[in-house]
Design brief:
six-stranded parallel sheet, Dihydrodipicolinate Reductase, domain 2, Rossmann fold, elongated, alpha/beta, 2 domains, binds L-homoserine, ten-stranded mixed sheet, 18 strands
Length: 408
């Protein structure tokens, strides 16, 4: 018999315990293991639960119990999660986490500690919620060169955008609904400013290219500046605006990870991913493309991925060699997003066709219902983002919006 410990009894922590206790008998039988709930760590008291006797406020109870072999870290944040996880790994206890901030900021270090102590640090739940993406990338697709990854990686913002587009719901109302449903981060700034998606694309980039990509190195824009006007123009163009986290391998061998809202054409399946659902397109030289789709946030969907890792950790007798990446000393392998060639959607006010053509040559003009006479929206031809921004500076305050067009 081995015990599991769950660090944190919030939305995901309570879901992990609930799903484990519900399915424990089958889990043990199907996997040839014998797991039971040992501890739940939380500073709060939880009375009246069938497992209230398992709560502790002291991490040492877990660290010093040799029967605890797998720990689920579902507290979120870096402190004290990092110290707790590192201490567990140093004791040879494997850790399964849903904590994308921890993996994005400390992943290389924790993977190294796990390797040194012959245990595992797993994080399937950190990216895409319930969607299997970490394992497919380092196992099923391991024989390929990954050329690009592009995904809707944040359920809260996708939920908000869907409500704005389909129900004309105000941004704040959609955000509070997402919070009530348990999708949003404790501080929703991380969702709406793109930081959560940024952490997730850092994890996928590190996994795909074998070197740690830190969030500070990634260009990141959220959805707070999007307007219903831009949404209408995207639909007139033949697509939707989505918050996209992506990484691609560039010709010079560098990689370009970034997070930003993008015009996604209706021919791309990502444009049809709505509500809290996430989807990740992975592109590679052998398999061409594969799409991974499912619930990207929420109590039991995230718990499902944590539990999958707990079971894997319980079955593995050594450190997984493929789920690994090295630390990076600097960001010299990351391309500056301003040098990337893109098409851009632009919305301007009081700028003449002649001035637009003088800067951009031929453009594709877009329309929308109730378009004011002085407003123009268009899609540029492919130029570097730096060139586009330089040209837009000439229009000064008359530039109302500019949004990249997703090209893969
Ligand atoms: N706040 C995150 C989201 C939770 O909305 O996707 C899952 O990582």
């Amino acid at each position: 018999m081995s015990k599991i410990a769950v660090l944190g009894h919030g939305v995901v922590g309570s879901g992990t315990v609930e799903l484990f206790l519900k399915n424990r008998e089958n889990i043990n039988k199907r996997n040839g293991i014998d797991l039971e709930l040992g501890y739940v760590l939380d500073i709060r008291d939880f009375e009246g639960l069938s497992y209230s006797d398992k709560f502790t406020k002291d991490i040492n109870d877990i660290l010093n119990d040799p029967e605890v072999t797998v720990v689920a870290e579902v507290m979120g944040g870096v402190n004290p999660a990092f110290d707790f996880v590192k201490s567990c790994l140093e004791k040879g206890k494997s850790v399964a986490t849903s904590n994308k901030e921890l993996v994005a900021k400390k992943g290389a270090e924790l993977l190294k500690v796990a390797k040194e102590h012959n245990c595992n640090f797993m994080f399937e739940a950190s990216t895409g919620g319930a969607i299997p993406i970490i394992r497919p990338m380092h196992k099923c697709l391991a024989g390929n060169e990954i050329t690009a990854v592009a995904g809707i990686l944040n359920g809260t913002t996708n939920f908000i955008l869907t409500k704005m587009i389909e129900e004309n719901m105000a941004f704040d109302d959609a955000l509070s609904m997402a919070q009530k449903l348990g999708y949003a981060e404790k501080d929703p700034t991380a969702d709406i400013e793109g930081h959560d998606a940024c952490r997730k694309i850092c994890i996928l980039s590190s996994l795909a290219y074998g070197r740690h990509v830190y969030p500070d190195w990634v260009h990141c824009e959220g959805i707070t500046k999007l307007t219903l006007e831009d949404v209408a123009y995207a639909q007139n163009w033949g697509g939707e605006i989505k918050l996209i986290g992506s990484v691609k391998k560039c010709d010079d061998g560098k990689i370009l990870p970034m997070v930003r809202p993008a015009f996604v054409c209706s021919g791309n399946q990502l444009s049809h991913v709505d509500d809290v659902f996430n989807a990740i397109m992975v592109y590679g030289d052998g398999f061409d493309q594969a799409m991974f789709y499912g619930r990207g946030a929420g109590k039991l969907p995230t718990a499902s991925a944590v539990l999958g890792d707990i079971i894997d950790c319980a079955k593995l007798t050594e450190t997984s060699k493929s789920q690994y990446w090295e630390d990076s000393a600097d960001d010299s392998f990351i391309m500056n997003y301003l040098d990337d060639q893109v098409q851009m959607y632009v919305r301007v006010d009081n700028v003449s066709d002649a001035d637009i053509n003088a800067e951009f040559g031929q453009v594709e003009y877009l329309d929308r219902d109730n378009k004011p006479a002085n407003e123009k929206a268009f899609i540029t031809s492919k130029l570097s983002e730096r060139e586009i921004q330089t040209k837009l500076e000439k229009f000064g305050k008359n530039v109302l919006a500019f949004i990249r067009v997703l090209d893969f």
